[in-house]
Amino acid sequence: MKAKGAGFSLFGVSQSELANFTKNLSVIIKSGATVSDALNAAISQLRNGYFKRVLQIVLSDIKEGSALSTSLAKFPRVFDKFFLSVISVGEESGTLEKNLQYLSVRAAKDLMLRRKVKEALFYPTIVISATLIVGLGISIFILPKMSDLFKSFDVSLPTITLWLLKFSDFMRQYNILVVVGVVLIYFAFKLVTQAKPIKPSWLAFLTNMPAIGNFLVAVETSSFCRNLGIMMESGLPINHALKVMDNTTQNGIFLKYINLLHKGVNNGQSISDQLSSALYPKFPAMAKTIISTGEKSGQLSEMLIYLGDYYESETESQTKNLSTVLEPVLLLFIGLIVAAVALAVILPIYQLTGSIKR
Fold this sequence. Notes:
Structural class: mainly alpha
Oligomer: single chain
Shape: elongated
Largest sheet: none
Strand content: under 5%
Distance between the termini: 74 Å
Radius of gyration: 28 Å
Mean pLDDT: 83
CATH superfamily of the largest domain: Type II secretion system (T2SS), domain F
Number of domains: 2
CATH topology of the largest domain: Receptor-associated Protein
Number of helices: 14
């Protein structure tokens, strides 16, 4: 969904706000209230001013005779095509309350997945950030003083020390520019990788990485299976559901898979037949088998929702595995830097003491 983040937002709608609103609306409609009364009650529980204004416009439209899905479609930054399609089918089939419940579960699950992704990246981000901060501090405040000391030694300095002195002189002269440059590079990198034209390729690149790739495959498989299962359970034909699925992921690999599946279904192929080909190497083999079983038994939507829950639980173990793999790699990286600096400092002192003895 287009909602951003998990917390309060002044100029948007967070994932948690959308999940809570959808859940409340479902519960109120289930009690027998009309859509307009349910909306009015749900709006009164909101604290987000922007979201309130959006829903008040929706409420006004409904009172004038508009369908809920039609009015919600005016705000694509809040309600994506997936959300609107499920609402539209619910209105047509008379299962709006049930479909809203599906959407609230989906929003809550998506929020949980995002949190798990952040948890997986939290440790390496903290370690790398701390290393950069400490490294910059040493380079700016400590190395320049040691540089003067080493230059006063009447001995030939080791190559590693000479490199350290050059780095020290550079940091002494351009320390402010270096700090600003590091900050700008970080934000530029983040901006570029989050840009719409580039993000799918960036996520596809990460999906092919040894450690983080397995985690992202579990995340994407969970999202794909749950979203497709929810739409089919809500009454959407599979070809329509796959068309809407374009808006449920930004991963280039899984976007390609969804487009291929959509074309195949339109040409009369089953999902399992397509997945059995070599065009879907990242899609888990177990998921392919269960989807095939679901198609043969006529329980595809149930099997997809089951797979969504299963691969969500897999993300928890993948999160732990990712931390286990990254921790020694990061420690080795930091250890090598510390060892290099230590050698650069100790070797000239050792040479100086050796020349004094002679």
